Amino acid sequence: INVANFRFSELSAEEINAPMKKLAFRNADLTDESFNELLKLLRYAPELLQAEFDDCALDGVGDFQPSESDIVRELGKVETLIIRRLHIPRFYSFNDLSSVYSLLEKVKRITVESSKVFLVPCEFSQRLRSLEFLDLSENLMVEEYLRNSACEGAWPSLQTLILSQNYLKSIERTGEILLTLKNLTGLDISRNSFRPMPDTCRWPPKMRFLNLSSTGIWAVKTCIPQTLEVLDVSNNNLDSFSLFLPRLRELYLSRNKLKTLPDGSLFPVLLVMKIRENALSTFSKDQLGSFPKLETLEAGDNHFICSCELLSFTLGQPALSQVLPDWPDSYLCNSPPRLPGQRVQEARPSVL
């Protein structure tokens, strides 16, 4: 729909208080002027909780300055704002959005994805006092501008920040910049191309979830915060993992180059580990027994050597499916030569 020339018409009394919860625009053409007109709809949808703009185009420069009598100063009950793939032809002439600061002060969740965002002005971040969830995936954020966005007093209630697939380079600098976010518990910085990890880093004090998947890292060091409960380092170049994480409950290691299971004593409260598509050749009763609380292990699609040791272990553990949710279909023999492609569960050692 093209709402570039949309002009709001006053509704009759019986149409007030519409029960609408969500308002979504898809493939819509907007202008600065029509955006101001659309805001007037809020007066007639007091139960609106979510606004969404997907694949829309904004032919304007963010000059949202309605006349004094028409000003909508807040979004009512709207808690969630989602913007995906917003196209702004005059992108580099765009204003600083100061005209919408007051509108978003009570919003709790904002997603702005694939929209060429490179900066959230410090003053804007400070006004987003209720924001708990912020997703800026697939944009143009770098450390220099992230420092301005996460300035002192920015996003005081923020708990989850997603910066997946941006242009971050330094894990150390990223953690240091985010120290201002005292309530941050979850950080997703996956799909960035990071330089090698240093030995020490500083992180927000309440960090519990960290996603470093698909970042090209070759080693995990003590830079990783020990407060973590969930760590995702899947789809990287790791050939070992020996890091003591006393609170870790979930560990995601799939699509790396590990040849053995990590030492379970490093993770005293670990409940879930996924280590699919690595270079594992075997695992034993002792290895599994080193994880004191492990409930779920996904280790399929590895290169298992169906040796006497592995086969005798699996034959003696009929309840493996309770721990291995992908057992038996994802566990295939890679060798010896007479067994490739056969399920480990059905393979039998030779007499020799």
From TrEMBL:
It is found in: Membrane. One of its GO terms (molecular function) is triacyl lipopeptide binding. InterPro entries: Leu-rich_rpt, Leu-rich_rpt_typical-subtyp, LRR_dom_sf. Keywords: Glycoprotein, Leucine-rich repeat, Membrane, Receptor, Repeat, Signal, Transmembrane, Transmembrane helix. SUPFAM superfamilies: L domain-like. The keyword Membrane applies. It holds the Pfam family LRR_8. One of its GO terms (biological process) is inflammatory response. GO terms for cellular component: plasma membrane; receptor complex. PROSITE patterns: LRR. Its main location: membrane. It is a single-pass membrane protein. PANTHER family: TOLL-LIKE RECEPTOR (PTHR24365), TOLL-LIKE RECEPTOR 2 (PTHR24365:SF17). This is Toll-like receptor 2. It comes from Myodes glareolus. The lineage of its organism: Eukaryota, Metazoa, Chordata, Craniata, Vertebrata.
